[in-house]
RNA sequence: GGCGGGUUGCCCGAGCGGCCAAUGGGAGGGGACUGUAAAUCCCCCGGCUCUGCCUUCGAAGGUUCAAAUCCUUCACCCGCCA
């Protein structure tokens, strides 16, 4: 090993700590010692939706930091556990998803996860795994004799994810068993790949340590756990959620424009924490940004950097560039009439939009806004006008029955609808 | 299997025959102030062909001039007993 690599590995835990990315670990000194050599570690993600969201990104990027430091990452997708449902962090029973649906989600999520890790490097390429591969073939008898025998129900009941549910509406046997399945994964990867570290969100602590117990009982082996804190926001609302739901990585589910805007609109009080969590900038770069941010938060330099870096990472640098230019063009400062058609077209491409035919009588502003899907109903659109939050090409819409005219279309083609300060949509006029 | 309690709008939760599109809180939305922040204050928050009309209070029937509110059946959830 080169001395450079050695430095990197020694710095890893320190760097994670500084970034606030460690909630809990098993014996930290022992972990630090083990990390002096490349180790194999894994992160599991269950397919509970067709896409992962920004919350899933937190431990995923920690995995990336481990790979950059020379360790061997295994990304596990929960083809089996996703069929069962993790009770952790939930106060009610999940509804079961259809097997074929979960299988589709597994494939989509694999694809998404793979973007964040290097599978090609000769040193320590990332590996993908699916726990369905070893869970599905196992018989009930094997499960009960070889695995179940190592679990004490008393201990299982004491896990927070179970006990909190027992105090409320109860828990099914299915979800109660979840911790056993996840433990089997860790055991399997320990045996197969000498995987000795599992990473997860802090709600996974119970499931991970259950795995450590299983490894000890079944193999007499020892391994580590490292959890990442649940990311919180200063205003107490959930990280990664907007009015419309989660912020997804799939561009069909959350447009890159909306993705960029999510970060750009971060609370001042959160932005540095987010940068530490997600950014691959160096410590000194981040400290410099933090200084500039506290001197002049209104300039939003840190916000902008965060939005750029993450949109580049998740989508692409080209897309990041495009949505930023679009936002600049559309956000008020510039006179819309002065934008050339190409700029306008590419900016509008990022927005929710609808089309109207120039043959027909042009609809009202209310009808059009509803058609773009920015509001749920025409009543909602009317309310916006009534409350004077409605704009057409940055000019206030005067009345509920305000109808568009041909002259409103910039370059003869596009009209920009706005609801409130920052919710934009577009109308395209087609012949 | 028996007995009891419950199922109300995005969430929590009042209402318990007419005054109910349904109190209150949270979330969400618009405005003012700002910086496409936060906090604060004001307003809104089922739908529509919108001074009126239509559809909602687990589902389906019924009683009544009138039901979220009463009755019947069904479904699901929770508790206690077997």
Reading off the top of the CATH hierarchy, the class of the largest domain is best stated as Alpha Beta
The percent of residues in helical segments reads: 40-55%
Largest sheet: 6 strands, mixed
Number of strands: 13
Give the CA-CA distance, first to last residue: 67 Å
Looking at this structure, what is the CATH superfamily of the largest domain? HUPs
The order of strands across the largest sheet is 1-6-5-2-3-4
- The CATH architecture of the largest domain would be 3-Layer(aba) Sandwich
Arithmetic mean of pLDDT: 91
Flag low-confidence runs.
none
Characterize the overall form. elongated
Number of domains: 3
Strand content: 5-15%
Helix-and-strand structural type? alpha/beta
Helix-strand layout with pairing:
Elements lengths: L2 H16 L5 E2 L2 H7 L5 E6 L8 H15 L3 E6 L3 H4 L14 H16 L12 E4 L1 H4 L4 H8 L5 H6 L1 H8 L5 H4 L1 H16 L1 E7 L3 H15 L4 E5 L12 E2 L2 E2 L9 H9 L3 H11 L4 H13 L5 H14 L2 H14 L10 H8 L4 E5 L7 H8 L5 H9 L3 E3 L2 E2 L17 E6 L3 E8 L1
Parallel strand pairs: 2-3, 2-5, 3-4, 5-6, 9-13
Antiparallel strand pairs: 1-6, 7-8, 10-11, 10-12, 12-13
Helix pairs in contact: 11-12, 13-16, 13-17, 14-15, 14-16, 16-17, 17-18, 19-20
The protein binds one RNA strand of 82 nucleotides through helix 14 and helix 20.
Can you offer a commentary on this structure?
With 431 residues, this protein is of the alpha/beta class. The protein has helices spanning 3-18, 28-34, 54-68, 81-84, 99-114, 132-135, 140-147, 153-158, 160-167, 173-176, 178-193, 205-219, 256-264, 268-278, 283-295, 301-314, 317-330, 341-348, 365-372, 378-386; strands at 24-25, 40-45, 72-77, 127-130, 195-201, 224-228, 241-242, 245-246, 353-357, 390-392, 395-396, 414-419, 423-430. The radius of gyration is 25 Å and the shape is elongated. It binds one RNA strand of 82 nucleotides through helix 14 and helix 20.
